[in-house]
Amino acid sequence: MKTLVLVEHDGTSIKDSTLATVSAAAALGEVHLLVAGANVGAVAAAAAKIAGVGKVHVADSAHLEHQLAEDVSPIAVELMGHHDAFLAPASTFGKNIAPRVAALLDVMQLSDILTVEADGAFTRPIYAGNAIATVKSKDAKKVITVRTTGFEKAAGEGGSGTIESVDSGSASGKADFVGAELSKSERPELTSAKVIVSGGRALGSMDQFHALIDPLADKLGAAVGASRAAVDAGYAPNDYQVGQTGKIVAPDVYIAIGISGAIQHLAGMKDSKTIIAINKDEEAPIFQVADIGLVGDLFQILPDLTGKL
Amino acid sequence: MKLLVAVKRVIDYNVKPRVKMDGSGVDLANVKMSMNPFDEIAIEEAIRLKEKGIATEIVAVSIGPAKAQETLRTALAMGADRAILVQTEDEVEPLAVAKILKGIAGEEQPQLIILGKQAIDDDSNQTGQMLAALLGWPQGTFASKVEMSDGFASVTREIDGGLETVKLDLPAVVTTDLRLNEPRYASLPNIMKAKSKPLQTKSPGDYGVDVAPRLETLKIVEPAKRSAGIKVGSVDELVEKLKSLGVAK
Known about the structure:
The complex is a heterodimer. Chain A is of the alpha/beta class. Chain A has 9 helices and 16 strands. In chain A, the strands form 3 sheets. Chain A has a 7-stranded parallel sheet, sandwiched between helices. Chain A has a 5-stranded parallel sheet with strand order 13-12-14-15-16. In chain A, β12, α5 and β13 (223-226) form a beta-alpha-beta unit. Chain B is of the alpha/beta class. Helices cover 27% and strands 31% of the residues of chain B. The longest helix of chain B is centred in the N-terminal third of the chain and has 15 residues, at 37-51. Chain B is globular. Chains A and B meet through α3, α4, β5, β7 and β8 of A and α3, α4, β7, β8 and β9 of B. β16 of chain A pairs parallel with β13 (230-232) of chain B.
């Protein structure tokens, strides 16, 4: 099977989500990549070095700078004329584009696959991860988004793919990029961090969230996450949200602070290797998934903990 | 301007789903069902656009079993003007839903179609994007803000790195994220009034759509359970644990 992986990049570097998606694609067959963007020669060169990559198709054009779904999907559809499976990471980037590709190919997409099974079957989470479905697609071509925590990252070096330019098409003219407000942080990225410190509504305010969570995260070299309740209350920005409809994370250590553990939150973090929970309510559902729990007042525990580290 | 809003009847978000012992699915017998939370946000956004005088009519659509009428009545009670139920007892996959919605869009000619970004049962996150592709319309997915002005929609999107704003030509498709708005509760008088609002029943065949599934589900199982953990009694003990995990020195 010949696969086409949509590369997630920011114009200069390739995101780790791409590397996990390449691993999923390698389990299906030959791996080709699609890099779409503006002035992406360096990205394409880096993509060709990913271990196991055969060919890198590059669509390089000014109108692709912001990789709008309306403009990228026709390029992928064209390339799918001679590929059997299209894979994209199940990030907001991949989720925005893949279903468009699927519909244009008249294919029903497999969202968020966790594993590639024998005989062309896949597993995927449904009901916020409370059930795992094993599914098979009857479509001749497959369109897949990949839950990146489910797959090891392919090595970023060692490959020797060939680079080939493809027709970039033209702008749809129906959608324009206006602007972006991207969170800037010195901390590791949430989806690839080894340690995450995550805060909930019990923090009480944005000021307390930052005053208590940030120093602990800094001590541990951790990324900062949040529950939906904390984001809705304005304590943390939307891109911190971990959960069913936010980011899916699986760090080595996840520290949940003042998070009760609604199923929607657990859906986003329960594959973490070690879960530590700090909560004043010993009946909180978070303790049912936590490996290590500490019951008590976070306003006393956190300064003490941060001080002792 | 006419708006089309798609809604789905799903397991209530407060209910913990139970997987059937025989691996055939999730047990939905005697389980509370509600409107998909993202679709409530979609209806609310449409109502706000009508209250601002931008929208003139809101048509709510659901594709599902006879009981999805209740979900549509909720949409009508919140403030939608009329409803269309495309009735089928079969499970309909996002691709087929998108094709049916395309058929309805052809008849209704809305300027904006608003959908939830995903349904909390199958967690697919596909229908809005597929619909936009089939119609050849632009899309504003995962919206946290929608502003309408002369033939355009400015949509602020929640993306992994933060927020992004796109300007879309109308007609367009928007899918909602959590922060777009806080949906209202329907008042009792409005619930009564909703009973007399028009609700039309159709079938997938009326739109020439074959809903036969493309995916075959082999089995549905519970995820691996995490083994019970331990409680520590003090911050000092927690510090020791963090050291033994290698995350603290």
